[in-house]
Design goal:
The structure is a single chain. With about 400 residues, the chain is mainly α. It has one domain. About 70% of the residues lie in helices and about 0% in strands. The chain contains 15 helices and three strands. The protein has a three-stranded antiparallel β-sheet with strand order 2-1-3. Helix 7 runs antiparallel to helix 9. It is globular, with a radius of gyration of 21 Å. The protein starts with 13 loop residues before the first strand and ends with a strand.
C-alpha cells in the first residue's frame, strides 16, 4: 500500500496547469499546482478499510479499499519513475532512500509499540508470535508468511499490504527500464495491460488448488492492481491517454459518479474469501479505481463537480494526509482492544478515536520531520535524454510521494 502502498501526505501529487488547448513554449518550465482530490481518494479508501476491520459484518467488502491503494501507488510511482527516466535516468539509490525514509520510520515505531503492548496484554505464546511477526513485518515478507499459513492470526496482520507494496517498490525500478529498453516505448502501456491480464489468469488458475490466504497475500496474485496503476501512469505520461482534451474530460467527469457508486456497492456485496472476489470484484475494483484517478487528473483545475468537491473536502483531505498512519495503527488498536475485552461496539466507537490520535502524532512527530530529510534525496537536475518534443500534456510531479 505505498504509495499502498501505497503512501500518504497532502503534497504528494502535483499537475501541470498547461493543456493542449493552451500550449507552452518549448523552452518554458512547467508550473505546478496541487491536486487535492487524489489525497481525498486516499482518505475515503482508508475510511472504508477501517470500517471493515471494526465491523466486517456491516461492510464485508471494505477490504477492497486496499486495492484502491494499490492502483494509486502503481500510478504515482510509475509517473514518477517515467519522469525521472526521461530527465536524468532512474537513480536507484535516491529512489530507494526516498521510499525507506517515507515508509520505514513510522512503521518501525508502530511495530515496536505493538510488541511492547503485547508483552503486557497477551500471554507468553501470543507475545512470542508477535515478536516473530514483527521481524517478518520489518523485513517486508509477512505477506508470504500469511500466504503459507492460512490459520495465522496476528496483531500485525495488516502489514501484508505494506509488504506487497515494498516488494513492488524494490522490483519495479529495476524492471521498468528493462521493459522500455527491450521493446518499443509506445507499446509500454499495452505490455503492462497484458501483464495485468496474465496475473488475473494466473490467480484464476491457482484458485483451483490454493487457499484464499495464498491468493490474497501473494505478490504474484495481487500485482494486477499495482500494474493497472502503472499502465495508467504510462498511458498519461506518454500521451496514449489524452486526458487534456475537452471530450475526454467530459466523459470522465460523467463516469466518476457511477464509478464511485459501483465501488461503494462492491463494499457491501463482496466477501474476501469467495472465488467471485478474486476473479471479478478485485479486477473490477482496479478498473473503477483507475477510472476515478483518471477523472481526477483530467478535471484538476476546472470548476469542481460535486464528486470533486467531496474528494476535496476538508475531512477527506485530512484523512488522506493521515492515511498512512491511520492504516498503520488502526488494526493493532482494534485487535488489542478486542483482546482486552472490549465489545465490537466499543471498538467501533473508541477505536477510530484512538487511532486518529496516534496517526496525528505519527504525522507530526515522525512523518513530517522525516520528509524534510527525504527532500535531500530528490532527483538531480535534468539532463537531456530524449529527442521527443516538449509535451503539452498535464505533467505529474511529486514532492512527497
Amino acid at each position: 500500500m505505498s504509495d499502498k502502498a501505497q503512501t500518504a501526505i497532502r503534497s504528494s501529487v502535483e499537475v501541470s496547469t498547461s493543456t493542449a488547448d493552451c500550449p507552452r513554449p518549448a523552452n518554458s518550465r512547467p508550473e505546478f499546482q496541487y491536486v487535492p482530490a487524489l489525497d481525498g481518494l486516499r482518505g475515503l479508501a482508508i475510511l472504508v478499510v477501517m470500517i471493515y476491520h471494526a465491523a466486517p459484518e456491516f461492510l464485508p467488502g471494505g477490504f477492497l479499499g486496499v486495492e484502491q491503494f494499490f492502483v494509486l501507488s502503481g500510478f504515482l510511482i510509475t509517473s514518477l519513475l517515467l519522469k525521472e527516466h526521461d530527465r536524468t535516468g532512474i537513480q536507484l539509490g535516491r529512489f530507494y532512500m526516498r521510499r525507506v525514509l517515507r515508509l520505514a520510520p513510522a512503521m518501525i515505531v508502530m511495530v515496536a509499540s505493538v510488541v511492547l503492548l503485547s508483552r503486557v496484554a497477551l500471554s507468553g505464546d501470543a507475545f512470542r508470535n508477535t515478536v516473530s511477526d514483527a521481524a517478518f513485518s520489518l523485513t517486508y515478507i509477512f505477506n508470504w508468511v500469511r500466504a503459507s499459513d492460512p490459520g495465522r492470526s496476528s496483531l500485525l496482520g495488516h502489514t501484508w499490504s505494506l509488504c506487497i507494496e515494498e516488494q513492488f517498490y524494490l522490483l519495479w525500478p529495476l524492471l521498468l527500464p528493462a521493459i522500455i529498453t527491450l521493446g518499443r516505448r509506445d507499446r509500454l502501456t499495452l505490455r503492462l495491460l497484458g501483464a495485468v491480464a496474465v496475473i488475473i489468469l494466473w490467480r484464476a488458475a491457482l484458485s483451483t488448488s490454493a487457499s484464499p490466504m495464498r491468493l490474497y497475500n501473494g505478490l504474484d496474485t495481487r500485482a494486477d492492481g499495482l500494474l493497472l496503476g502503472c499502465a495508467l501512469g504510462a498511458a498519461i505520461h506518454d500521451g496514449r491517454l489524452r486526458i487534456e482534451t475537452l471530450a475526454t474530460k467530459r466523459r470522465l467527469a460523467a463516469a466518476m459518479p457511477f464509478c464511485a457508486v459501483a465501488l461503494l456497492s462492491l463494499c457491501f456485496v463482496a466477501h474476501w474469501y469467495t472465488l467471485t472476489t478474486f476473479l471479478c470484484w478485485l479486477p473490477l475494483t482496479g478498473v473503477l479505481s483507475a477510472t476515478l484517478i483518471c477523472g481526477v487528473m483530467a478535471n484538476a483545475g476546472l470548476s469542481p463537480s460535486r464528486g470533486m468537491l467531496l474528494l476535496q473536502s476538508r475531512p477527506a483531505l485530512f484523512l488522506g494526509k493521515l492515511s498512512y498512519g491511520l492504516y498503520l495503527w488502526h488494526y493493532p488498536v482494534f485487535r488489542l482492544m478486542g483482546a482486552a475485552g472490549a465489545s465490537q461496539l466499543e471498538v467501533a466507537l473508541a477505536g477510530p478515536i484512538i487511532t486518529l490520535a496516534l496517526a496525528t502524532a505519527s504525522w507530526c512527530l515522525i512523518e513530517r520531520p522525516v520528509l524534510r530529510l527525504k527532500e535531500r534525496f530528490a532527483a538531480e537536475a535534468p539532463r537531456v535524454r530524449t529527442r521527443r518534443p516538449p509535451s503539452t500534456r498535464p505533467t505529474v510531479a511529486f514532492k512527497h510521494s
